Give the backbone structure.
Amino acid sequence: MLPLAHSLSMMAAIAAMRGRAADAADLSSVAARLASGERDAAHTDTGTVREALARIRDLGAESALDEALAEVPQDLRRLATSGHLDVPAVAELHRLTGATSLGELSDRLASQGLAGAVEPTLMERARAAIAQASATRPRIPLGRAWSLLDPVLSVIRDASPEIERIVATGSFRRFAAVTGDLDVLAVSADPVRTSARLMGLPFISSVLHAGRDKVVVRFDRAELTIHIVTPDVFVPRLVSLTGSAAHVWQVRQRAASLGLTLTRDALLDHDGRARAIASEDDLYAALDLAPVAPELREAEGEVEAAARRELPRLLCHEQIRGDLHMHTDWSDGRDSLETMLLAAEALGYEYVAITDHSQTSAIARGLDVDRLERQIEAVAAAREKHPTMAILQGSEVDILPDGSLDFPDRVLERLDLVLASLHDMAGHSGAQLTDRYIQAMRNPFVHIVTHPTNRLVPNRDGYTLDEPRLFQGAVQTGTILEIDGAPGHLDMDGAMARRAIAAGALVSVDGDCHRADLLGRHMLFAVGTARRGWVEARHVVNALPLEGLRARLTAKRQAS
């Protein structure tokens, strides 16, 4: 091809990836005529071709193509710049699959419907590109994802009255600590109308792809895919978009073993007829499986447990009686004691614990003994103002490098609740850190070990601890291990929490919140993380009524 013909052909491929079929056709037509030798083939009345020619003239072909490629969905852009695929190859994969994300493309390439449609060499290159792009793509922390999606869902609902239901999907719905994609699924009897309406929403800075059943937009330095389906397609699509790729594959294999076919849009009988499915629970039931909660859909034994009817009765948010970890402006919290208590009352809590930092946490304005004494007096006064909610006086006490605690026992024994935290690694190995935890657990006044790995999502991995010893120490000393809902921690994570309860440990599910307006959200994250760990209410101390909690806390001191 001549250089201009090649550039216009690339522009056509990019337009196709954005769902602009008419623009792609116009650009392809002119490119083909130029390639055939027509000298003045670029004369046209279409604005798309004129604009493309102007950008090529003003910027140069390479820069114009880079500019155009910047406006396609980010995963397609990553594939096109991976070194394994070029723009025409990605455009061809998009034409065959309709995929705009790595997950979608991987799912479609694995489906039987594409068997033979994709050339083996292209399939091999595509898989290599997907693996490379998946390993390097940036991840969005759960807290950031929630801040982005929560207001957007409200805007979409208000602007599109024909939408019957809208649900955030993917790893976000599974309460994973980080997510690669922001996806929502909307149900509409008229997807074309809904798609057109959504493209005009004020929060959108640019539309990267627009199709009949999907719109991909950029907003607030992030990218959102809005899937739009009719009611009959909603349930199978929701299952497909929520579970991990491995979970969805296992569920499809389960369907196949029963002579059924589960696609992203239907559950088909052996004769190809779609079954009417009213809910996700109904779909799992059709496969002779117990309902699998979204948080469990990770291909970590949940399908097999569902087949045996041995899934846990997961902790529910409504079973949480109180929050045992929060901070006020006495240390590094933003809000006053009174403001935090009012927020807790609004959430309906039976009890809360005020647990500001101890003195070694200078960066967190930790309390020395004198300031702690003054806070004890302030909490006592607050109890008079809030008689319907028990207020426990606590402290988040640092575990020092030698394993001792930041306050002496004579101070700790005055507190209703003591949290022990290991914020300073002090250059220690995982075995040494575990030793420090176990030494702290042996103190009769320590009730809870908080965020045990002290990870910082998404920037820092947690400590590498000797988990069997940590869990054994917790069980032997009657010390509780925390599932911390602060989005920077989410610690223990689901996998560690599952191992902890399997070892016999009890857990607390806490917010570790520093702002009154986020108190409820942090608890949602904590409960979601606990559910990922197969945690039931019977494992959770703050699912106990107040007297049961007090008895549990007292038991540790009496047993030591």
Q: What stands out?
A: The longest strand covers residues 390-398. The chain has five domains: 1-70, 72-135, 140-229, 235-307, 317-559. The chain has a mean pLDDT of 94.
